[in-house]
Amino acid sequence: MKKLLIISICFFTLSSTNLAQNQANIWHFGHYIGLDFNDGVPTPITDVPQNHSNASSTICDEDGNFLFSCNAKEIINRIGVTMQNGDNIIGNWHSSQGILIVQRPGSDHLYYVFSVDLGQFVELGMHYSVVDMNLDGGLGAVTSQKNIEIEAGYDAFDKLNAVRHKNGKDIWIVTRKFSEDSYAAFLLTENGFDPNPVLSPAIDRNIYDFDCNFGTMKISYNKKYLVTAYKYEDGDYYLDQAFEICKFNDKTGEVELLYTLCKNAGIYLTHFEPFAVEFSPDSKLLYLTFENNSTPNKIMELFQYDVSKIEDSVSFVESEILIASGPVNGLQLARDGKIYCTGYDYGAYDYISVINKPWERGTACDFQADAIYMGSEVVTWFLPNQLLDYLYRFEWDNNCSGVPINFKPNFIPNPQNIIWDFGDGSATTTELWPVHTYNQAGEYEISVVVHYYPTDNYPNGRIERTSRVIEINASPQVDLGPDLQICEGSTFDLTAGSDSGFYVWSTGVFGDDKFSI
């Protein structure tokens, strides 16, 4: 007797997003100090058993528990001692962004520690070491993969960034090469580190004076733009003493130079030295720090720019607003949605300053000088380097039309109340972990207003506003034709159409025969 099999299959699109949590909740930096953001309000740590100059990176587990930190010379573990095999790391602790820790995609215990040199006379270049947290009783240890030279990064100095690939899983490690004058984006996947970078042309700059390379590089939180600071030009063309304004492609790793931003009035004047870069968490505003040498005391100045105008250099420069002068260096977004600042350009400082509302235009951003006392002369120029994606204010698990999307808040502490607007004209919701379905493909701006409970630091509570743009893809419209009736032992082909996406495959048993789809 012939057996009949009737098959109906539904295909749908999946989007993979690695949901970050609390890996950036603790910072180690400066002279034996740090900040703990686990309670939502930064608490000074005054007994860090490690000295950092500029280069610093710290990593926590997903619950915010400290794992280890590195100052480009040694790695210390969670009990405050040098990690097994964690000494003699090849790097330079004076480098602006000389060290970076990232977790290997797909692993719960392997971490990569990347380092770059300062770029002064000796080319140490770029290296990495691998930390296995399963070793030494869970304290972690550097494996035999230690100080691995990255040949393509032999001329990489001072700049390190990390962002997740558009696929939400792999990680781009981005740096700046100076002999070959290019940006280099290396890919870290679950299979390990790819030493063959994506190269993008950049401006020719002096390689052997560290002042020329000094300053930070940041990628916007929507991963569309990259901005790099170059403190000083050791030559005659002082317009190179500037910020490079670039586009970034998180799918290909490519960097496209748009233009340079320089505040010097002429080619022989070095009045304004670029230092630090940071974007607001909604990527709508850019903050840049200059040292103004035209004044007797060489003051530091903080400027704000409108990112919506960034691809038009004239409009972008015209959007400039002076926010503050003073201790405004070392800009770094933190887990509480604020941007923190170090002191002046030279020497150590006593305080951390803060931009309380970095999403607000102009002085409404509420810059607060000397907000947190850290101790006498312990704060150095720059704050910890970390994976951009750890700082998202909220995330989601797919981007398909017609499919429920789960939204994950990353706000600390837990809000008193919250309002989500999904940007498609639907009703707002006050659920902390909302689920929403977009009916049509397109781009939508998700806006969130968060109210926090009163604390000692904020007696009247605190309000945060943030947003992100989600790109919704059309779910594939699959037409398999009419249902098929086939006899046991027969073969057939299924065509799922030409729509792009990832499809679900099924397996099953028909009688004594197995089939796969």
What's the quick description here?
Helix content is 2%, strand content 38%. The chain is built from 2 helices and 37 strands.
Summarize the structure in words.
- This protein is mostly beta strands and 517 residues long.
- 2% of the residues lie in helices and 38% in strands.
- The protein contains two helices and 37 strands.
- Strands 8, 9, 10, 11 and 12 form a five-stranded antiparallel sheet that branches.
- A hairpin with an 8-residue loop joins β10 and β11 (141-142).
- The longest helix is centred in the middle third of the chain and has 6 residues, at 313-318.
- It starts with a strand and ends with a strand.
Could you outline the blueprint of secondary structure elements for this entry?
Blueprint: E1 4-7, E2 26-29, E3 33-36, E4 43-45, E5 57-60, E6 66-70, E7 75-76, E8 99-103, E9 110-116, E10 126-132, E11 141-142, E12 148-149, E13 156-164, E14 171-177, E15 182-189, E16 192-201, H1 210-213, E17 217-219, E18 225-229, E19 243-248, E20 255-261, E21 272-279, E22 285-292, E23 299-306, H2 313-318, E24 321-325, E25 332-333, E26 339-341, E27 351-355, E28 367-373, E29 394-396, E30 405-409, E31 417-421, E32 435-436, E33 442-452, E34 462-472, E35 484-487, E36 507-510, E37 513-516
